[in-house]
Specification:
single chain; alpha+beta; 2 domains; 2 strands
């Protein structure tokens, strides 16, 4: 079954016999998998594509490459906690001892 469709039961009434029957109809729903459905290209290859379309496809392709090269190979290590994240911007912070709180009123 396609995860981007949900089956909805609808009631159909026959106009002549007035009998009812239930029909299961697939209805498209929003899912993560719709991300991978590219826009439809024109049939004529001589038509120039809009710059917005080209930018969108390029960014989607770069995101897909990042998933393939960085996230998917390391998914098991992230899940099990065996991989320590590499953070180049990390700065060690010195933890200072707590100061006693003065609760007396002056």
């Amino acid at each position: 079954m396609d995860p981007s469709y949900r089956m909805v039961n609808m009631q159909q009434t026959n106009t002549v016999s007035k009998s009812n029957r239930i029909i299961a109809k697939p209805v498209r729903i929003k899912t993560f998998f719709n991300f991978f459905s590219p826009p439809v290209l024109p049939d004529d290859p001589t038509i120039e594509l809009k710059p917005e379309y080209v930018a969108s496809v390029t960014s989607d392709y770069e995101i897909g490459l990042y998933f393939r090269e960085e996230i998917i190979p390391n998914a098991y290590m992230f899940f099990t906690g065996q991989m320590i994240e590499k953070d180049d911007n990390f700065v060690d912070v010195q933890i200072l001892p707590e100061r006693p709180v003065n609760t007396s009123k002056q």
